[in-house]
Amino acid sequence: GAVVSQHPSWVICKSGTSVKIECRSLDFQATTMFWYRQFPKQSLMLMATSNEGSKATYEQGVEKDKFLINHASLTLSTLTVTSAHPEDSSFYICSARDIASYEQYFGPGTRLTVT
Amino acid sequence: GQQLNQSPQSMFIQEGEDVSMNCTSSSIFNTWLWYKQDPGEGPVLLIALYKAGELTSNGRLTAQFGITRKDSFLNISASIPSDVGIYFCAGQLSSFNKFYFGSGTKLNVKP
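YS: structure for the whole thing
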């Protein structure tokens, strides 16, 4: 089946530093990937839609200069949390839409803790 | 953004019981998805529905796309302990559009 990986699976960083999270589709190609954030005991909230070869589309209220997205290939999208603060601590989940089937597959998530 | 109302918020059932949960929206969706999320993991797709009235099964799971296209339900029959987790519905307004997620139903199964 279709597999999406995320790296790292968890990360702890100090306030003010930047963290990069990778999302890879391992056995399919994806022109579109999505980045979600999930706070404890809450649902997934879409942050942005990442499009291969073009700029990401951000949801209302999400700062594009703080959450930098790069989708340089059909199998990789990265999310960089810049100048992280404790309130950015969350579970970040990506999903990738298979270019052939249009099905959306989720990664295992990355738990970010900012101290 | 779009609001998906998912209920119930949580359920405590005995192993072997059937369970039902549903999602409603104020908008017409063209796709409904049901996911299960285990603690500390990403959601896993259970069932995808693409047509109004569609009834689809995946093992002990059955989901239906409501006729009005504004609702969907998920049934789990003969529950087992490994069914424990959070179940999310997700709806899409149109193809290639983003998905909106319900607030989740937390299922607890007592052996």
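YS: worth flagging: Chain B is about 0% helix and 55% strand.
IM: good catch. Also Chain B has a mean pLDDT of 92.
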